[in-house]
Amino acid sequence: MGSQLQWQPKQVNENLFTRVAVLPTSLVWYQTIFTGIWFGCFESDHQVQEHPVTMLTKFDPGGFFSLHGHPGGEEILVLQGDFADETGVHPPGTYMLNPEGFIHRPYSERGCLTFVKLRQHGGKSRQQIKTNIYKSSWQSGIIPQIELQLLYKQTGYPEKVWVERWQPHTTLSNVVETEMKEIFVIEGIWQDELGSYPTGSWLRYPPHCAYSPRSETGCLIYVKTYPVDRTRFIVGEDFQHPPETLPFT
């Protein structure tokens, strides 16, 4: 990676009421204290309990983390290469939601790139999810040109996560969100009235934000919605890091 900046907890796009779009060309990459691991941060707020982060994580070949736990849980979407931990080797398209209390020692022999959301899934009763978006079936979306796969929805928790596949030349007009909505562009180009967002872009639309999305090329996008409050950041008071665990910083 070109950057030699060292990652430190900080605030990045922390105002949840602000419409945000981060292009891959503007993403700043940071070295970490872990061997062969780089962070490209979309969203971070170290002033909120347990420091929620949304980011890309790049593993150099042979890169690895020490054993660590996950207060507040984590989401992982493997974009390139093979991500591995004690549960197996996970190829591109693998989506995982690991609930609060999950521990592992991730590594990648060949290198990989992952989209990650940390400390935004408090609650030990959450289901653990593992699926692959390239091997699962699609359902009809809100119009025939859009298909979707539901990745996570659970009674008692407010978040909903899915992926959408847009055919070329698909357009929606005057969409108004009732909850917070995040989008990560997995493939293709996502567009709205303010710009075009290629593969690797991350966007956040706050409630009551009106926009008109489209895709001339077709695209595959990760989508997450949740209400505007801080409950997504709350970590159970009984969470304990296991012995010999290095907390994720």
Question: What does it look like?
Answer:
- Residues 22-120, 128-228 form the ChrR-like cupin domain.
- Residues 230-249 have low confidence and may be disordered.
- A hairpin with a 5-residue loop joins strand 4 (29-31) and strand 5 (37-45).
- This protein has no helices and 28 strands.
- The strands form eight sheets. Strands 1, 2, 4, 5, 6, 9, 12, 15 and 16 form a nine-stranded mixed beta sheet that branches. It has a seven-stranded antiparallel beta sheet with strand order 3-25-22-28-19-18-17, with no helix packed on it. The chain has a two-stranded antiparallel sheet with strand order 7-14.
- The protein has two domains: 11-131, Jelly Rolls (Sandwich), CATH 2.60.120; 137-226, Jelly Rolls (Sandwich).
- It has 249 residues and is mostly beta strands.
